[in-house]
Amino acid sequence: MDRIQDSLSLCTENEQRTWLAAACRTALAAGSLIRERYEQPHTITLKGAIDLVTETDVAAEAAITASLAADAPGIPIMAEETKTSHATVAERLWIVDPLDGTTNFAHGFPFFAVSIALLDRGRPMVGVVYAPMLDELFYAVRGCGARLNDGTISVTGTSNLIEALVGTGFPYQVEATLPVVIRQMQALLPLVRDIRRAGAAALDLAYVACGRLDGFYEMNLQPWDTAAGWLLVQEAGGLVTTFSGAPFSPFSPDILASNAALHRQLLELIR
Predict the structure, then answer these.
(1) SS3 state of residue 202
(2) 78 phi/psi in degrees, rounded to 5
Protein backbone atom coordinates (compact mmCIF):
# COMPACT_ATOMS: atom_id res chain seq x y z
CA MET A 1 0.00 0.00 0.00
CA ASP A 2 1.46 3.34 -1.08
CA ARG A 3 -0.16 5.55 1.50
CA ILE A 4 1.31 8.75 0.17
CA GLN A 5 -0.19 8.16 -3.26
CA ASP A 6 -3.47 7.18 -1.62
CA SER A 7 -3.41 10.38 0.40
CA LEU A 8 -3.01 12.52 -2.72
CA SER A 9 -6.32 11.21 -4.05
CA LEU A 10 -7.99 13.49 -1.48
CA CYS A 11 -6.55 16.61 -3.06
CA THR A 12 -8.25 18.75 -5.67
CA GLU A 13 -5.40 21.26 -6.12
CA ASN A 14 -1.68 20.89 -6.84
CA GLU A 15 -0.74 23.03 -3.84
CA GLN A 16 -2.74 20.73 -1.59
CA ARG A 17 -0.90 17.71 -3.02
CA THR A 18 2.45 19.31 -2.26
CA TRP A 19 1.48 20.06 1.34
CA LEU A 20 -0.10 16.68 2.04
CA ALA A 21 2.72 14.71 0.43
CA ALA A 22 5.25 16.64 2.50
CA ALA A 23 3.33 16.10 5.74
CA CYS A 24 2.74 12.38 5.12
CA ARG A 25 6.32 11.65 4.07
CA THR A 26 7.62 13.55 7.08
CA ALA A 27 5.28 11.88 9.57
CA LEU A 28 6.12 8.39 8.31
CA ALA A 29 9.87 9.06 8.46
CA ALA A 30 9.66 10.52 11.98
CA GLY A 31 7.48 7.62 13.06
CA SER A 32 10.06 5.15 11.77
CA LEU A 33 12.74 6.90 13.83
CA ILE A 34 10.54 6.78 16.94
CA ARG A 35 9.68 3.12 16.42
CA GLU A 36 13.36 2.18 16.11
CA ARG A 37 14.11 3.88 19.43
CA TYR A 38 11.05 2.61 21.31
CA GLU A 39 12.72 -0.28 23.16
CA GLN A 40 16.06 1.47 23.67
CA PRO A 41 17.04 3.25 26.91
CA HIS A 42 15.86 6.86 26.96
CA THR A 43 17.47 10.03 28.21
CA ILE A 44 14.68 11.88 30.01
CA THR A 45 14.71 15.52 31.05
CA LEU A 46 11.94 17.51 32.71
CA LYS A 47 10.18 20.59 31.38
CA GLY A 48 7.98 20.51 34.49
CA ALA A 49 7.37 18.25 37.47
CA ILE A 50 5.64 15.64 35.28
CA ASP A 51 6.26 17.08 31.79
CA LEU A 52 8.89 14.91 30.08
CA VAL A 53 11.05 15.22 27.00
CA THR A 54 13.32 12.50 25.64
CA GLU A 55 16.20 12.49 23.20
CA THR A 56 13.77 10.95 20.69
CA ASP A 57 11.44 13.98 20.84
CA VAL A 58 14.37 16.20 19.94
CA ALA A 59 15.69 13.91 17.19
CA ALA A 60 12.24 13.47 15.64
CA GLU A 61 11.63 17.21 15.67
CA ALA A 62 14.94 17.90 13.96
CA ALA A 63 14.11 15.36 11.27
CA ILE A 64 10.62 16.80 10.79
CA THR A 65 11.71 20.42 10.51
CA ALA A 66 14.46 19.53 8.02
CA SER A 67 12.06 17.48 5.91
CA LEU A 68 9.31 20.10 5.84
CA ALA A 69 11.82 22.85 5.03
CA ALA A 70 13.06 20.80 2.07
CA ASP A 71 9.65 19.70 0.75
CA ALA A 72 7.69 22.91 1.42
CA PRO A 73 10.27 25.69 1.69
CA GLY A 74 9.39 29.12 2.98
CA ILE A 75 6.65 28.05 5.40
CA PRO A 76 7.46 28.79 9.07
CA ILE A 77 7.34 25.91 11.53
CA MET A 78 6.02 25.99 15.09
CA ALA A 79 7.30 22.86 16.83
CA GLU A 80 6.91 21.78 20.44
CA GLU A 81 10.50 21.37 21.56
CA THR A 82 12.16 24.31 19.80
CA LYS A 83 9.24 26.74 19.35
CA THR A 84 11.39 28.62 16.86
CA SER A 85 8.66 30.09 14.67
CA HIS A 86 7.73 33.74 15.01
CA ALA A 87 4.82 33.35 12.62
CA THR A 88 1.38 34.64 13.50
CA VAL A 89 -2.02 33.12 12.83
CA ALA A 90 -2.31 35.49 9.87
CA GLU A 91 0.42 33.55 8.07
CA ARG A 92 0.81 30.09 6.59
CA LEU A 93 2.28 27.92 9.32
CA TRP A 94 3.27 24.32 10.02
CA ILE A 95 2.42 23.19 13.56
CA VAL A 96 4.31 20.10 14.69
CA ASP A 97 4.34 17.74 17.64
CA PRO A 98 7.21 15.31 16.99
CA LEU A 99 6.03 12.87 19.67
CA ASP A 100 2.63 13.48 21.20
CA GLY A 101 2.44 11.19 24.23
CA THR A 102 6.03 11.41 25.42
CA THR A 103 5.19 10.03 28.87
CA ASN A 104 3.66 6.97 27.22
CA PHE A 105 6.72 6.53 25.01
CA ALA A 106 9.11 6.85 27.95
CA HIS A 107 7.21 4.19 29.90
CA GLY A 108 6.83 1.77 27.00
CA PHE A 109 3.08 2.38 26.67
CA PRO A 110 2.52 2.23 22.89
CA PHE A 111 -0.02 5.05 22.49
CA PHE A 112 1.71 8.05 20.95
CA ALA A 113 1.89 9.79 17.60
CA VAL A 114 3.53 12.29 15.29
CA SER A 115 1.24 15.25 14.57
CA ILE A 116 1.71 17.68 11.66
CA ALA A 117 -0.73 20.36 10.55
CA LEU A 118 -0.67 23.24 8.09
CA LEU A 119 -2.64 26.37 8.92
CA ASP A 120 -3.33 29.18 6.46
CA ARG A 121 -4.46 32.41 8.14
CA GLY A 122 -5.67 30.35 11.07
CA ARG A 123 -7.61 27.80 9.01
CA PRO A 124 -6.49 24.15 8.99
CA MET A 125 -5.55 23.04 5.49
CA VAL A 126 -3.75 19.72 6.07
CA GLY A 127 -3.68 17.45 9.12
CA VAL A 128 -1.63 14.27 9.57
CA VAL A 129 -1.40 12.07 12.66
CA TYR A 130 0.79 8.95 12.51
CA ALA A 131 0.76 6.26 15.21
CA PRO A 132 4.04 4.40 14.60
CA MET A 133 3.47 1.39 16.86
CA LEU A 134 0.15 0.65 15.13
CA ASP A 135 1.37 1.83 11.71
CA GLU A 136 -1.78 3.93 11.34
CA LEU A 137 -1.64 7.08 9.23
CA PHE A 138 -4.57 9.47 9.65
CA TYR A 139 -4.74 12.37 7.21
CA ALA A 140 -7.13 15.05 6.01
CA VAL A 141 -7.26 17.93 3.55
CA ARG A 142 -9.63 20.84 4.02
CA GLY A 143 -12.80 20.24 2.03
CA CYS A 144 -11.70 16.80 0.81
CA GLY A 145 -12.44 14.37 3.66
CA ALA A 146 -10.34 12.29 6.03
CA ARG A 147 -8.72 8.86 5.77
CA LEU A 148 -6.97 6.21 7.82
CA ASN A 149 -4.32 4.42 5.73
CA ASP A 150 -6.25 3.60 2.52
CA GLY A 151 -9.83 3.95 3.78
CA THR A 152 -12.20 6.86 4.29
CA ILE A 153 -13.17 7.54 7.91
CA SER A 154 -16.11 9.20 9.61
CA VAL A 155 -17.32 9.96 13.11
CA THR A 156 -19.95 7.82 14.83
CA GLY A 157 -23.69 8.35 14.67
CA THR A 158 -24.16 7.88 18.41
CA SER A 159 -26.76 10.28 19.80
CA ASN A 160 -27.38 8.79 23.26
CA LEU A 161 -24.85 9.69 25.96
CA ILE A 162 -25.15 6.32 27.66
CA GLU A 163 -23.88 4.68 24.46
CA ALA A 164 -20.91 7.05 24.15
CA LEU A 165 -17.23 6.30 24.80
CA VAL A 166 -15.52 9.61 25.59
CA GLY A 167 -11.83 10.45 25.81
CA THR A 168 -10.17 13.06 27.97
CA GLY A 169 -6.78 14.16 29.25
CA PHE A 170 -5.38 15.68 32.43
CA PRO A 171 -3.38 18.94 32.40
CA TYR A 172 0.20 19.03 33.65
CA GLN A 173 -0.85 21.77 36.11
CA VAL A 174 -2.40 19.17 38.41
CA GLU A 175 -2.93 21.21 41.58
CA ALA A 176 -4.44 24.19 39.78
CA THR A 177 -6.83 22.21 37.58
CA LEU A 178 -7.75 19.22 39.76
CA PRO A 179 -11.04 20.66 41.10
CA VAL A 180 -12.31 21.33 37.57
CA VAL A 181 -11.16 17.92 36.29
CA ILE A 182 -12.96 16.16 39.14
CA ARG A 183 -16.17 18.16 38.66
CA GLN A 184 -16.21 17.34 34.95
CA MET A 185 -15.66 13.64 35.62
CA GLN A 186 -18.38 13.59 38.27
CA ALA A 187 -20.82 15.20 35.84
CA LEU A 188 -19.95 13.04 32.84
CA LEU A 189 -18.96 9.57 34.04
CA PRO A 190 -22.38 8.47 35.37
CA LEU A 191 -24.06 9.41 32.07
CA VAL A 192 -21.77 7.83 29.45
CA ARG A 193 -20.71 4.28 28.71
CA ASP A 194 -17.17 5.01 29.89
CA ILE A 195 -14.28 7.48 29.77
CA ARG A 196 -10.79 6.83 28.45
CA ARG A 197 -7.63 8.76 29.34
CA ALA A 198 -4.85 7.44 27.09
CA GLY A 199 -2.40 10.35 27.13
CA ALA A 200 -1.99 11.62 23.55
CA ALA A 201 -4.48 14.28 22.48
CA ALA A 202 -3.60 14.17 18.77
CA LEU A 203 -4.34 10.46 18.68
CA ASP A 204 -7.49 10.87 20.79
CA LEU A 205 -8.79 13.34 18.20
CA ALA A 206 -7.90 10.93 15.40
CA TYR A 207 -9.91 8.28 17.27
CA VAL A 208 -12.93 10.60 17.32
CA ALA A 209 -12.49 11.09 13.58
CA CYS A 210 -12.46 7.36 12.85
CA GLY A 211 -15.26 6.45 15.26
CA ARG A 212 -13.31 4.74 18.04
CA LEU A 213 -14.35 7.52 20.41
CA ASP A 214 -17.60 9.46 20.30
CA GLY A 215 -16.08 12.55 21.87
CA PHE A 216 -12.95 14.02 23.45
CA TYR A 217 -12.37 16.98 25.76
CA GLU A 218 -9.35 18.48 27.50
CA MET A 219 -8.10 21.81 28.83
CA ASN A 220 -4.70 23.55 28.77
CA LEU A 221 -3.46 21.96 25.56
CA GLN A 222 -0.97 23.54 23.15
CA PRO A 223 -1.40 24.22 19.41
CA TRP A 224 0.76 21.23 18.42
CA ASP A 225 -1.52 18.91 20.44
CA THR A 226 -4.68 19.76 18.54
CA ALA A 227 -4.01 21.39 15.15
CA ALA A 228 -3.93 18.20 13.05
CA GLY A 229 -6.67 16.39 14.97
CA TRP A 230 -8.94 19.42 14.66
CA LEU A 231 -9.03 19.05 10.87
CA LEU A 232 -9.34 15.26 11.03
CA VAL A 233 -12.51 15.53 13.13
CA GLN A 234 -14.01 18.26 10.97
CA GLU A 235 -13.34 16.43 7.72
CA ALA A 236 -14.74 13.21 9.19
CA GLY A 237 -18.06 14.96 9.87
CA GLY A 238 -17.54 15.93 13.50
CA LEU A 239 -17.68 19.19 15.41
CA VAL A 240 -14.90 20.94 17.33
CA THR A 241 -15.41 23.89 19.69
CA THR A 242 -14.12 25.34 22.92
CA PHE A 243 -15.81 24.48 26.23
CA SER A 244 -17.95 27.61 25.77
CA GLY A 245 -19.17 26.41 22.38
CA ALA A 246 -17.15 29.06 20.52
CA PRO A 247 -15.35 28.21 17.26
CA PHE A 248 -12.13 26.36 17.95
CA SER A 249 -8.57 27.46 17.25
CA PRO A 250 -5.39 25.56 18.21
CA PHE A 251 -4.61 28.62 20.32
CA SER A 252 -7.83 28.17 22.33
CA PRO A 253 -7.46 27.17 26.01
CA ASP A 254 -9.65 24.07 25.75
CA ILE A 255 -11.24 21.70 23.24
CA LEU A 256 -14.36 19.59 22.84
CA ALA A 257 -14.55 17.36 19.76
CA SER A 258 -17.46 15.06 19.06
CA ASN A 259 -19.56 13.38 16.41
CA ALA A 260 -21.77 16.53 16.45
CA ALA A 261 -24.89 14.60 17.57
CA LEU A 262 -23.59 14.58 21.15
CA HIS A 263 -21.96 17.97 21.17
CA ARG A 264 -24.59 20.05 22.95
CA GLN A 265 -25.09 17.44 25.67
CA LEU A 266 -21.33 17.15 26.26
CA LEU A 267 -20.94 20.93 26.36
CA GLU A 268 -23.55 21.26 29.07
CA LEU A 269 -21.84 18.60 31.21
CA ILE A 270 -18.22 19.71 30.90
CA ARG A 271 -19.03 23.36 31.57
Answers:
(1) helix
(2) -105, 115
* 3-state secondary structure (DSSP) of residue 78: strand
Helix (H, G, I), strand (E, B) or coil at 256: strand
- Given a cut of 50, the residues of the chain with pLDDT beneath it are 1, 85-87
Q: Apex CA 227: angle with CA 235 and CA 111, to 5°?
A: 95
Strand 92-100 to 146-148 pairing: unpaired
Q: What is the pLDDT of residues 213-266, one digit of tens each?
A: 999 999 999 999 999 999 999 999 999 999 999 999 999 999 999 999 999 999
β-strand pairing of 92-100 with 77-79: parallel
**Residue 131's CB: how many other CB atoms inside 10 A?**
24
pLDDT at position 83 is 58
Termini Cα distance of the chain = 44
Beta bridge partners of 165: 194
Our CA angle for 230, 232, 234, nearest 5°, is: 70
Q: What share of the chain is helix, strand, coil (3-state, %, to 5)?
A: 40, 25, 35
Asked if residue 194 lies in contact with residue 164, where contact means CB atoms within 8 angstroms, the answer is no
Buried-state track 192-211, b at ≥16 Cβ within 10 A, e below 16: beebeebbbbbbbbbbbbbb
Calculate ∠ Cα 48-50-53, nearest 5°.
70
Question: In degrees to the nearest 10, what's the CA dihedral of 8, 12, 13, 17?
Answer: -10
3-state secondary structure 61-81: HHHHHHHHHHHCCCCCEEECC
